[in-house]
Amino acid sequence: MKKILFVCLGNICRSPAAEGVFLAKLGERNLSSKFIVDSVGTSAWHMGERADERMLHHASKRSYDLQSRARKVKESDFDDFDLIIAMDQSNVRNMQKICGGRKHHAKYFLMTDFCREYQGEKEIPDPYYGGEEGFEKVLDLLEDSCEELVRQLEAGEV
Ligand code: 4NP
156: alpha, beta or left, given left = phi > 0 and alpha = psi -120 to 50? Predict the structure, then answer.
């Protein structure tokens, strides 16, 4: 059983969407029972909240049902999860501060490491203060990267 953790800043836009898209792709391949999937924020600003209304709306137009509640990353996550996948570079820096440079089990990745159609994109851009098109762009990048992430996991490449 592999454990995958998606990380962003608030845990109400990008990482809940990554979790939802990834879970849907696992479901399509009958792989759901082989993974534990969660998402967190590096801030506690939205603790306990469901995903942002705009993210819920755009995700549901593509048939993704986002169920997660926001929580802040905790130190034990760095050992409990196998892969930690961040949406942008600032998420990685914030997590490194939180874990204080100690050794831990999880391997870090950027979500865009798995982009294929959108290869060359450097991060999943924060849509929070932008317009509707930002949420669509997030979902385009996540669908592309989650497809490749599932492929690499199935092939044992990651
Ligand atoms: P997320 O987006 O990191 O993708 O969940 C944000 C959510 C909330 C805030 C910033 C980004 N905020 O400033 O409250």
Answer: left
pTM: 0.98
| Candidate from 8, 95, 128, 142 with most ligand 1 atoms within 8 A of CB, to mutate | 128
Question: Pocket around ligand 1: residues whose beta carbon is below 6 Å from it?
Answer: 8-14, 45, 126, 128
User: Does 8 participate in catalysis according to the annotation?
Assistant: yes
Domain residues for the domain of 101 are 2-154
Amino acid at the residue 134: G
Q: How far apart are CA 74 and CA 26, in angstroms?
A: 25
- CATH number for the domain harbouring residue 108: 3.40.50.2300
Per-residue pLDDT 10s for the chain (158 aa) are 999 999 999 999 999 999 999 999 999 999 999 999 999 999 999 999 999 999 999 999 999 999 999 999 999 999 999 999 999 999 999 999 998 878 899 999 999 999 999 999 999 999 999 999 999 999 999 999 999 999 999 999 99
Our count of domains for the chain comes to: 1
